[in-house]
Amino acid sequence: MADPVPYLARGGEKLTTESTTLISSSDYLNEPRLRDWLATAFLRKSGKDSPTTHDAYKLYGILVDVFDIDRIEALFTAERKRWPELDAWFAEGFSSSFSKADLLAYPEGSFGHRFGRYIHDNGFEIDIVPRFVPKNQFQYFSLRSGQTHDLEHILTGGGFDILGELVPYFTRLSNLPRFLDPELVGLINAGQVLGALRLISRTGLHYHAAFPSALAAMRCGMTVGEASGPYWMRKFEDAFHLPLDEARAALGIVGAVDLDTRAASMLWPEYA
Questions:
Q1: Environment class of residue 239 by beta-carbon count within 10 Å: exposed (0-12), middle (13-18) or buried (19+)?
Q2: What crossing angle do the helices spanning 69-82 and 137-156 adopt, rounded to 10°?
Q3: Domain ranges, residue 130
Q4: Most CB within 10 Å of its CB: which of 49, 56, 154, 162?
Q5: Is the whole model's pTM more than 0.90, yes or no?
Q6: How many degrees, rounded to 5, is the angle at CA 21 between CA 18 and CA 23?
Q7: pLDDT digit string, tens, across residues 18-27
Q8: Is 1 contained in some domain?
Q9: How many domains does the chain have?
């Protein structure tokens, strides 16, 4: 007798629970705010009423309550015992202290001056997240990641536009797994995974003319991430005085090209 269950629906196992509310083995799925964020951020259109930067701000506020900090700390501690360079990075605990004036004092065309002009010309602030004193390893990793994000745009070749964001996103997503424990990367990269894929989803669903550029940005980021050293531990500030190509080489960035995604990003209405 033919199996009445559709082919693709076979193999499932019906589970039961005494819970009276929605429950899953996934901590992410168990968080109702994250379910709402995911549906909204992945499926909505772009608009000036809710800039895409707001997505990330909301996401990290939610993930703070989802992360298993004790597990992350234990895994970082284990990695430090395995990898002396990582241990030294944490032990030094370097944090940025430069100002916009410091950046503009570097020679024109240098890595630091390029960043200073971008900050100055757009009226932006240096710090994406206000500076704070980290209380654990994960907080330090997060602090340093925030401090270097815009610098990673320049180093990895991603423009300061919505699709340009995909280059540093996918550089990190393809680089960290090469150096750190898979379980640890899965935990600390959650924001990067969700943040990057929302841009892919919305471009593909609503602005498909820009989708080839989104794929190109992904590819460029992955090329850099797969070829470069653990650049996220490097002290970017030591290379501010160098021309960009020399700064990339000094910091272990390999395979970067300056990808122009501005025209494709303009297809997102909030940027038009």
A1: buried
A2: 70
A3: 69-271
A4: 162
A5: yes
A6: 80
A7: 888 888 999 9
A8: no
A9: 1
